[in-house]
Amino acid sequence: MEALVTGGGTGIGRATAIALKHAGARVAICGRREMDTPVDLAITADIREDAERVVDEVLDAFGRIDVLVNNAGGQFTAPAEEISLKGWRAVHRLNVDATWELTREVATRSMIPGKGGVIFFNGFSPRRGLPGYAHASAARAALESLTRTLAVEWAEHGIRTIFLALGSIHTVGLESYGDDLEEMAAEVPLGRLGTPEEVAAVTAFLASPAAGYITGATITIDGGLEAT
Question: How many whole angstroms separate alpha carbon 179 and alpha carbon 15?
């Protein structure tokens, strides 16, 4: 199994890359900074500009891509009425446009010709109203809808697609938003934040043949937060 994980240098991406490696996959990661994740191939790249090059390098090294984890993303915090069109487009360029370009490159150059693969779209759940993140919530909703459409359209090629709807996962990225982590944990029915390793373990299972009948699904990993 050959896998590509975006945003693989830290947090959920790093943990996912390591989990897939432990599951026996050859793993490539990409990110905007140099990375020390213990994998087979690390590519410094910005997927907004370098999607084709990233796929070139992975295919040159591995010959195929069986698993794509679209984990790279980002946003800024702002009241909805203060989000300019430029700011809106910047968030969607990374979270939707770049993700789609990389997905299309992988699908057309490896998964469709190879008759199989698994594509993950990672993001916080767009089903909860999150003040300050109207632009980012809309972007994640687009990816969740894309997951379902591709599951139907690409099923004939043996390609599965899965959206991971993440709750409050304790990462450096989460800390950077300046929220009170103890208060965030108190809102979760399980009473704690999730860990990157928990997300990674679910991803590794879903990428395996044991989950071969799961596609077009949203898998919620949030400690029961959405249930409230």
Answer: 23
